[in-house]
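DM from R.C. (forwarded with permission)

"hey, sorry to bug you on a friday — could you get me a structure for this? deadline for the figure draft is monday and I only need the backbone to look sensible"
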Amino acid sequence: MLNSALKNKASSTTEKGLGRAQEILQCARTLLASDGYAGLSMRKVAAGAGISLSNVQHYYPDKDSLLEALLLYTMDVFQSKIDAIAAAMQDAPPLERFLSTADMFLEEITDPVTHALFFEIWALASRNPFASRLMDKMMARERKTIYNLIRGLNPRIGDEEYMQRAILMVAQIEGLMLFRLNRHTRRAEFNAVRASVRQLLVNLATVA
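My reply, with the result:
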């Protein structure tokens, strides 16, 4: 997976360089989830990745650019999974493709590391303008993805209404992070919540 920030760099980047950049982002992801934004430092990332600080700064000059790249990378990973679902289910009804995508989002945000990562960024966004702008960008991308999946499922529902429903759906899915629902250690509870959320999403996607 090539992250958006790296693909948009003006200079050419080798495959080895792309791999190194991903290693840096993976290390930053783990550190942000475990130590929070305050505990995330370029030196810690360099140490964790086993490279020099100057090497990290070659790809990500400062902490904010690293955080932005990390969020973009996370969304790119989500998008690759959405694309894989669409390809595997191209002959399935649109509603089934949408629900499979929703299941993927639920699986991802209830993973302990991913949950800690997003929880930290949400908290940071409430007091840091830069993080708030990044979160707004990420949420807009999620809303657009959901909108494109549900638009037209019911011809009686207009596009504007579907966008409002997409906003509600994203809020419902993201809101589950507050419950700290670990899909590994509390699988039965996760499955019950997923069934309830699925029914709610079906209603929002199809009931006029």
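R.C.: lifesaver. The two ends are 38 Å apart (CA to CA).
me: no worries. The first helix runs from residue 4 to 7.
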